[in-house]
Amino acid sequence: MTDAASAPPRRYLAIWFPWLPSDRLRRQEQADAASPDEKDAQPLLPVVLVEKIKGALRLAAVDPAAARAGLSPGMTLADAQARTPDLRTVAHRPDLDDALLARIVEDFGRFSPMVCADAPHGLLLDITGCAHLFGGEAGLVRAAESRARRIGLAVRSALAGTPQAARALSRFGPGGVFAPGEDRAAVRRLPVAAMELPEKDEQALRRAGLKRIA
After folding, report:
1. 104-140, pLDDT tens digit by residue?
2. Is the pLDDT of residue 74 over 60?
3. What's the whole-number mean pLDDT along residues 39-61?
4. Measuring CA to CA, how many Å separate 15 from each of 4, 12, 67, 68, 186?
5. How high is the pLDDT of residue 152?
6. Dihedral (C-alpha) 150, 180, 120, 189: value to the nearest 10 degrees?
7. 8 A C-beta contact, residue 170 and residue 15
8. Measured by CB atoms within 10 angstroms of the end CB, which terminus of the chain is less buried, N or C?
């Protein structure tokens, strides 16, 4: 029987697809293109995916071009159009996003037998004991990110000693591979938003002058 004290430390890889809704839309449109010219054509307008909330159309997701224009989820469509008149609006389809993520979960089983969806738009993998199959942890991360890009998804990932640290470092930090013991210090440098508290609690922390987890 393996001595628990001698067992390798647990290691977790969080993978986040920051533009999954717009990436999914682009993938579908490229697949549906009738000709090679159509397939290679790039959209000229920023894309926003909208949904109706309490009678108002709001942005549920944006593409990178819309984000660069200062648009963000939660904004009303009217406000977005006032800021950026030339917009392409598409109905938000979270069911299709969820279906794509479910397929990605199955596909990423190639990297670990323990993988699950991590909402919104992410995965969490327990890669303990798996990294040597890819030449080490950095090799596994490179392989996973390369796989995501090959299927048309922008990606950011972080590998750490706990699932919470990996998630926070992938979504609110620079991502990367954090050796045992380094992840704690890295998390302390993250903004308080990385705690993912209710909005009112985060605002209370900011009013108190607290900007980072440390």
Report:
1. 999 999 999 999 999 999 999 999 999 999 999 999 9
2. yes
3. 84
4. 28, 10, 21, 23, 17
5. 94
6. -110
7. yes
8. N
Q: What is the helix (H) or strand (E) element at residue 165, kind and residue range?
A: helix 163-171
Higher pLDDT, 54 or 136: 136
130: nearest Cα among 16, 13, 17: 13
Question: What's the number of CA atoms in the CB half-sphere (13 Å) around residue 159?
Answer: 22
pLDDT tens digit string along 165-191? 999 999 999 899 999 889 899 999 998
Among 119, 127, 97, which Cα is nearest to 28's?
Answer: 97
Beta-carbon neighbour count of residue 40 at 10 Å?
9
- Cβ proximity of 60 and 78 under 8 Å: no
Structure tokens at 8: 């390798």
Q: Say how far apart CA 142 and CA 134 lie, in whole Å.
A: 9
39's tokens: 């397939």
For residue 101 the two structure tokens come to 């993520």
pTM above 0.85, yes or no: yes
